[in-house]
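Our consortium's second objective concerns turning raw sequence data into structural hypotheses that experimental partners can test. To show how far this objective has progressed, the report includes one record in full. It was chosen at random from the queue rather than selected for favorable results. The single chain below, 318 residues long, was entered without modification.
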Amino acid sequence: MKSAYEGYTFPLSQNVNRTSVWFRNRYGIELAGDLYTPKNAQGKLAAIAVCGPFGAVKEQASGLYADEMASRGFVALAFDPSFIGESGGEVRNVASPDINTEDFSAAVDFLSNLEYIDPEKIGIIGICGFGGMGLNAAAMDTRIKATVTSTMYDMSRVNANGYFDAMDADARYELKKTLNAQRTKDYKNGTFARAGGVVDPLPEDAPFFVKDYYDYYKTERGYSERSLNSNEGWNTTSALSFINMPILSYSDEIRSAVLMIHGEKAHSCYFSKDAFKKLKGENKELLILPDTVHTDLYDRKDKIPFDKIENFFKNNLK
């Protein structure tokens, strides 16, 4: 199965240019991105860095968001996080709460040094698990003037507590035993076992949220050859660092603008509702969309409130 638009899951807007770019993060890892720029743009522009969903690549949802924002006058950078897709990192298919937060700041480094970008007008969009990483970046990086999270996942919480917080301390201990035993096997074998992407074929009794993921990652709608979720998934031991490194510890210190968007019927909605409660100060908003599930906000343009997102950035990147 191949994506419909030359490796991308969406068509490029007619009024947008797309260019491949590379930049390094603070750890020296080279990141790959697609830079979307509005045609015939003039002067210094506002810019937005986009990443996610967790286990996806820039040819999927983040690229769609970047393309749409560029069509509305912003420069937008969709990038693959470290160890994923076309980005560097010697070990493949692994995630890190620290390094993946840093990836957002590395994108800000890159955008800040483009001559046609106003470095005082840079925002970020984090989708799914990179919504949580985006909030963490906004708490750390004062150059980020506005943050949008879409269908946000708190990856620390879901790895430590399981879906819907169903895992207690004893279950978490058993999970850690299993993952650490896998580390020993991986070292012995010289390879990293993969956890598997979205289950395929789809069991008839699969929970709705699994069916939701299947409908995106395993069909022509969202399949990508580079996507972990579309194929063999993360390294099994990727979950370890998230279990005891909560990424939203300092989200209450975000002083810049935040817009959190989630679907009312998304299995993951509780992540945004609870994360929003911790935010303080002015210009923080939680938008719950009726009749909307988790992956609707990956690519359903009739569901994604792009007018709202555009106005949010125009009001806060000025």
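The partners drew two points from this record. Strands lie at 16-24, 30-38, 45-51, 75-79, 117-127, 146-150, 257-263, 284-289. The mean pLDDT is 96. Both points have been shared with the crystallography group to help prioritize constructs.
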